[in-house]
Design goal:
With 126 residues, this protein is of the alpha+beta class. The protein has a domain at 48-118: BLIP domain (Nuclear Transport Factor 2, Chain: A, Roll). 30% of the residues lie in helices and 27% in strands. The chain contains three helices and four strands. It has helices at 2-25, 48-53, 60-67, and strands at 72-80, 86-95, 102-108, 111-118. A four-stranded antiparallel sheet has the order 1-2-3-4, with no helix packed on it. The longest helix is centred in the first third of the chain and has 24 residues, at 2-25. The radius of gyration is 36 Å and the shape is rod-shaped.
């Protein structure tokens, strides 16, 4: 009788434990969230057409509006003009990196007084 009870206990334990063991052997089902790949940043290129549309007397904000992105601050200094007045000069540059070419500007008291460029492309290749 002891053997019969022992076998009954083993069988009941096996029946209870079987679903747990089977579940642990099954790979977990996971819901994957789709990953959006990072979008490449649009290339920032200054073109000859943009350069030509920039006029003396414009503010930095107006120039940025034409170019489409901020320039790199190149420095500032104070100088006296022909009349002895102190003028605050600020320089900004735009570089096309691997695409070649650059543009430099000088602002006096917030207004464009000089611009220069070197090998700017005619059109953006975006």
């Amino acid at each position: 009788m002891k053997k019969c009870v022992l076998w009954c206990v083993v069988i009941v334990a096996a029946v209870i434990a079987a679903p747990i063991v089977v579940r642990s052997l099954r790979p977990a089902v996971r819901t994957l969230t789709p990953v959006t790949p990072p979008q490449p940043e649009p290339r920032k290129i200054v073109t000859r057409e943009q350069f030509d549309s920039i006029q003396t007397g414009m503010t930095y904000e107006q120039v940025v509006g034409i170019i489409g992105f901020e320039g790199t601050f190149d420095g500032e200094r104070q100088e006296a003009d022909d009349f002895g007045n102190v003028v605050n000069l600020h320089g900004y540059g735009w570089k096309n990196g691997a695409f070649g070419g650059f543009m430099n500007t000088v602002f006096a008291d917030g207004r464009l007084i000089h611009k220069s460029e070197h090998q700017l492309p005619r059109r953006s290749e975006q």
